[in-house]
Amino acid sequence: MKFIFSIIFLFPMVSSAQSNLPSFENDTLYCSGGYKIYPGQVLNFANGTSAAGYFRFIKFHSNMARTDTYKMQNSSVVVDKLRTFKNTGPENQSIRIQGTVTFKNKSTDDVDFFLDFEKAIASPDRLPNELTVPAEFLGNRSQPIAEPVKITTQPAEVNKQNIPDDLRQIIVADEIKKLFDLYKSGALTKDEYEAQKKKLLAKQ
Questions:
Q1: How far apart are the first and last CA of the chain?
Q2: Which of 15, 85, 108, 110 could be a cystine partner for 24, CB 3.0 to 4.6 Å?
Q3: Is 157 strand, coil or helix?
Q4: Stretch (H or E) spanning 197
Q5: Which residues make Cβ contacts (< 8 Å) with residue 53, sequence separation at least 6?
Q6: What is the average per-residue pLDDT within 98-104?
Q7: For the whole model, what pTM was predicted?
């Protein structure tokens, strides 16, 4: 009888603890699937899932003055600090992470970014997850589709008829810069970079 009363007494506490996830306590982020992020942990990122290869759920902090999150593809980050936890609903759950990234070419750099952790762990639209975690932390949450997203490196089409010359030149210059960044990160060979650059210049 005492055992039954103990179970009845403890059950609301367990349910309450589960309903409070995700939460941030003592420098540790507790995600709803049980995955934890804390200083000293290594986070492994997969591919960005936007059409251009950018991460949808990772945004660099403004003090980094950059937006090229695609460079974080297949990288790992050693967490140094966690701050600015937000959990005001499914559309606003994030944590600011500062640490050291090791890119796929083995170079390293300091990074400061916001991670939309729930969506990065289990994509809401069944695309591959951007943050790789062990399967045990996915539970019954959304699983990625079988086929990975195909990341295109094709330059954006520039319509000569509908875009003013000065704006078109800015767009082309921006696309060339993106291609150059992909080339420098090893995602494109020099020949691929030159070929795509030639196509873009031909559209001016």
A1: 82
A2: 85
A3: coil
A4: helix 190-202
A5: 47, 70, 73, 151, 152, 153, 182, 187
A6: 93
A7: 0.61
**Minimal CA–CA distance to 55: which of 43, 81, 39, 73?**
73
pLDDT digits 0-9 by tens, 124-169 = 887 889 999 988 887 655 444 444 444 444 444 444 445 566 666 7
Q: What's the whole-number mean pLDDT along residues 173-188?
A: 76
Q: How far apart are CA 135 and CA 119, in angstroms?
A: 15
How crowded is residue 25: how many other Cβ atoms within 10 Å of its Cβ? 9
Instruction: Assign 3-state DSSP to the chain and report helix, strand, coil percentages, each to 5.
Output: 35, 25, 45
Residue 69 one-letter amino acid: T
Largest CA distance in the chain: 83
Yes or no: say if 160 and 168 are a contact pair by the CB < 8 Å rule: yes
Q: Strand ranges (DSSP E) for the chain?
A: 23-25, 28-30, 36-37, 42-45, 58-60, 76-87, 93-102, 108-115, 131-132
pLDDT bracket for residue 17 (50, 70, 90) = very low
